Amino acid sequence: MGTIADQRVGRGARSPSTSVPVIFRIPRVRIGRPALLWWGWAAALFLLYATISARRQALVRTTGYDLGIFEQAVRAYARLRAPVVPLRGDGFNLLGDHFHPVLAVLAPLYRAFPSPYTLLVAQAALLALAVVPLARQAARVLGRRAAHVVACGYGLSWGIASAVGFDFHEVCFAVPLVSYALEALARRNWRRAIAWAVPLLLVKEDLGLTLAAIGAYVAWRGPRRLGIAAAVLGLVGSALEFKVLMPYFNPAGTYAHAANLAPGHHSLLTTLALAPLDAVRPEVKATTLVLVFAPAALIALRSPLALIAVPTLGWRMLSTNAFHWGTAFHYTAVLMPVVFAALIDALRPYAAADDPLARRHVRASLATVAAVTLILVPSFPLAQIAHRSTWRTTPHVTAVRELLSRIPDGATVAASNRLVPQLTSRTTVALFPTFPVHWTLYSTDGPIPPPTAQWIAYDRVPPESWPYPPGPWPYPAPRQEQEYATTLARHGYVRVAEADGVSLLRRKG
Q: What is the pTM (predicted TM-score) of this model?
């Protein structure tokens, strides 16, 4: 019978002839087990977001404004063309609407899978990816159980839910960038934080202000020169995009949303003086400001990281566009990583303290976060996963699919807002009735140009779009009916088919 050493040779032990002891116990290695926490959450959230987005598209709940617009831009990039988007007006380059060249990243994926589902799945992946640095930092600072609470809180937060529940938007690229930058800030890896934040300049024009805020934080807590350089880069980058690049690409030669930034009072000085009051009135603004930090039970406000939310909250609350003030749509998504990174940072001193009372405070805080998360979920779009209508195909949806299938690939189509994303991958689509007018949004008064498309798909009974109202857009129902009747009577179209409130027209000749 051989020695213990002889028995271990061939199982990774050294030969007995070596001078190193060979009697040892081979450890059991668990590769990557901690990472399963955050990557597991990312996978689960991706499936949740992708499912909700895909069902909305399948049930004709997505819209031309905005999913159709972004698909037309990505489709153009996939064909190696400028992002000219017919939905925004004849010859309109979408870089003149918002500055988001990052959309070109999706071009290879869209070329392989030309479908609106490609954009929706990519958005789901990007939003889910942002949970990884948050959960990882929470596990490192607060422990594994706390990491689950943070991951759940972020993943089910209303800011992310509202983005998932409304089509696709470029801001989905910013959410993981901000999340990774904040993790680097928390670990005092200043260069990495700036590296993650700089690409924000390619996502949207206002996000240079977020880069500037991150730079200011680095200048305060870390290397001053690096922080100041990043802050200046963010401010100058946004200024160039607002003042030079977007007007250059815009057919009208102006910034498309300049009206949203107009002074709220007769003079600039008065506007600046009253800005603090204007930021919280009307009351919907104050409600939104509270709700932004509510997923973290307001605890995030204790951390200086919360200041990174100020630029986004500032322009939203001071905008003249009422859509920016509330909780709907995608405008809050980029703030959710800030809120939960600030939560982790605020609880860090208590978790590190060797004090039972401090540890109890951390547990109570996380329990409150979990409770608030569960309370808010039913009021926002992620609750659609449990809604019966999400899993039922209505006769209206069946009628839409049947009628739109009659339109040949490559045709030009003018379609109602909610019919647009059903057609953008295989036809050239404009909105019916024609909108915008001369590249200008919200011009609902006066005559509009007649349609010139080969086909018109008109839906007078938009399907359910909970939690948002299903009313007609961009014009009131009577105006849309008037334009439809005029099209039949004067513009050379004939009705090909009609079913369940959906009409399909074809141009004569």
A: 0.90
